[in-house]
Amino acid sequence: MLNSNAGKHAQLIKSKAERFGFQSCGISKADFLEEDAPNLENWLKNNFHGEMKYMENHFDKRLDPRLLVEGSKSVISLSYNYFPEEKISALENYKISKYAYAEDYHEVVKEILREMVSELQEEIGEFGFRVFVDSAPVMERSWARKSGIGWVGKNANLITKQNGSFYFLAEIICDLELTPDHATTDHCGTCRKCIDACPTDAIVSDKIIDGSRCISYATIELKNEIPDHFKGRMEDWMFGCDICQDVCPWNRFSAPNRQAKFAPNESLKSFKKEEWKEITQEIFSEIFRKSPVKRTKFAGLKRNIEFLERSSDSGL
C-alpha cells in the first residue's frame, strides 16, 4: 500500500524534470532486477565485455539498488536529448560519435540533476538520494525500460517512439515512496537495420551485443592494441560509433537538443584527416579539455587514428 503522497510526489517530480529540460521521466520501485540477472550473468560468461573487467564487479549492486543506496524505495529514470543541430562533416575527416561533439555529459547532466533535486527538497522536504549519470554499477536501460521511458532495441539502445535513441540516461535513486510507472511495448518488429548495418557484427542477436567487437569499445574502452578483426571495418570512426543509431527508423524523429553546452565544438568542425594525424598532446588537451573524448586519452586517440591510417594504407 503506497502512502498518500506517492502519486502527488511522482507528478511533481515529472513536471520538475520537464522544466529542467529532460525529455522523459519515469519511476520504478527500487527492487531486485530478477529478469536481468541471468542475462547479465550469461553476457559476462560469454566474455562479451572484453577487457571491461569493471563489469564483473558489484554484480549484486547492479541488480539491486537497495544495496547501492541504503533505504532506497524508488528509481527515477530520466532521459536528456543530445541530438546535435548540425552533424560534423565526415568529408576528408575522421568520425566522432555525436554524444562527444561537446562538453562531457556526465558533468552537465549531473549538475542539472543536483539543481533539480535541490528544488524538490525545498518543496517535498529532505529525502535521501544519489544521482547517477552513466556512473556506478546502475543498469540504466533496465530501469528506464521498467519505468516506461522506452524499450530496449535490437542494438541494445533504449528507444522511444517520440525521440528515437539519441539521449543520455540518468537516475535519481531515493528513499521516497513514489507511484511506479509501467513498461512500454517493443516496437522494433521484424526490422534488422541495426544488425545488418554493423560492420563488425557486434550485434550477435536481438538485444545482445558482443562488446568486444563493437567499434565504440575498440576506440574508447580498449586499452591495448586494436585487434586485427577491426581492420577495414572501422569506417573512419576514431571515437565511438553511431552506425546502429543512424540507421534506426525511429531516429527520424530525433530533434536537435536545446542545451548550449551540447553545441558542437568549433574546433571539431574544421579539422581534417591530415590535421588529426599530426595532433599533439597540447592540442588534444586544448580541444578536449571538457569533452568525453578525454576518456580515451591522447595516446588512445593517436592509436585509433594510426590504426585507421594503417587500414587505409593497406587498402582494406
Automatic annotation (TrEMBL):
Pathway stated in the Swiss-Prot or TrEMBL entry: tRNA modification; tRNA-queuosine biosynthesis
Cofactor note: Binds 2 [4Fe-4S] clusters per monomer.
Active site: 134 (proton donor)
4Fe-4S ferredoxin-type domain sequence ranges: 179-208
Binding site for tRNA: 223
Catalytic reaction list: epoxyqueuosine(34) in tRNA + AH2 = queuosine(34) in tRNA + A + H2O
Keywords annotated in UniProt: 4Fe-4S, Cobalamin, Cobalt, Cytoplasm, Iron, Iron-sulfur, Metal-binding, Oxidoreductase, Queuosine biosynthesis, tRNA processing
Binding, [4Fe-4S] cluster 1: 188, 191, 194, 248
Enzyme class: oxidoreductase
InterPro entries: 4Fe4S_Fe-S-bd, 4Fe4S_Fe_S_CS, QueG, QueG_DUF1730
Location of the protein in the cell: Cytoplasm
Binding site for cob(II)alamin: 62, 134, 155, 158, 169, 216, 241-242
This protein's record includes keyword Metal-binding: yes
MF annotations from Gene Ontology: epoxyqueuosine reductase activity
E.C. number(s) listed in UniProt: 1.17.99.6
Cofactor (UniProt): [4Fe-4S] cluster; cob(II)alamin
Highest taxon of source: Bacteria
Annotated TM spans: none
Binding site for [4Fe-4S] cluster 2: 198, 214, 241, 244
Oligomer status and interactors: Monomer.
Family per similarity comment: Belongs to the QueG family.
Function (record text): Catalyzes the conversion of epoxyqueuosine (oQ) to queuosine (Q), which is a hypermodified base found in the wobble positions of tRNA(Asp), tRNA(Asn), tRNA(His) and tRNA(Tyr).
Name listed for the protein in its UniProt record: Epoxyqueuosine reductase
Organism: Chryseobacterium endalhagicum
Name of the encoding gene: queG
